[in-house]
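re: ur question from earlier - yeah i can do the single chain one, its not a big deal. heres the input i used so u can compare w yours
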Amino acid sequence: MKYIIQFLIIIAFSFLGEVFHFLIPLPIPASIYGILLLFTALMMKWIKVNQVREVSTLLISVMPMMFIPAAVGLIDSWSIIKSHLLTYIIVTVVSTFVVMATSGFVTQYVIRRDNKKGEE
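and the output i got, formated as tokens:
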């Protein structure tokens, strides 16, 4: 029963992301809205990590399986993709480094902020 409740919490935030995507006319995927809402709820302590820990761990462990349909789609579209392959590689490499740098800066900011709170 605990897993069902945890899964329903995550699904509820995913649904709220869909609602936000419908209401806000920005080119942002609904899943991003849902993740940001869940992150906000966790940071504001409206939801405790213990309330979603086991199911989120399970979902992360099966995440590679979720990329199989996308990979098959790429294989099906190879005739279109191959003429722009260099562009795709450049965009992938650059965006990977941008995401890594941003994640690192945000992580350092959060750690420093938490350390300052601990000292006070």
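The mean pLDDT is 91. not sure if urs matches, ping me
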